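During the reporting period the student researcher (J.K.) took over the structure-prediction task from the postdoctoral fellow and processed the backlog of single-chain submissions. One of the processed entries is reproduced below for the supervisory committee.
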Amino acid sequence: MPGPGTGQPDQLPEHRTRMDGVDCVEAPVGLGPTNILPAGSSFSLITELGFDGTLDGALTTHTFTIRHHFQNIETGAVGILPLAGGTFVVGAGVALDRAHIRAPAGPYTTADTGGPADFVIPANFDTGTFRITTHVHPNNPALKGNWFAFHDGLIMVVTKP
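J.K. obtained the following structure tokens:
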């Protein structure tokens, strides 16, 4: 479910960065977005964003990185998911249309208590609840202070199998 997201710059008509949302898609691909996953499953995070300004074509060929940070609601533990494909080049591949970019990252995994995975149900709990905060930034140091986007509000729950 999309939550609050924002980007900079927001100076239309020349420049505008949008962060439209981050969706969790359970594997196999083809299943719809979901925020509730059974332990033992895998999923990808799809970040949707765009650059709408008349001068944002200048971003073509620039590489951006997407990072997904998480907090376990039950325990307060925090972490960052591995990069796992979380980069894109504007004007190439998934970022061919700079006004609507869908950039996947993952796959990531879930597990029951004690299992090895990216999201694990904590001991003494029936579920694991995770809040995801995503940020996107350019890799070019000359652009880092000017283009940035983040999304906060994706909540995911891992249930016992």
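The committee noted the following: The chain has a mean pLDDT of 90.
J.K. will present the remaining backlog at the next meeting.
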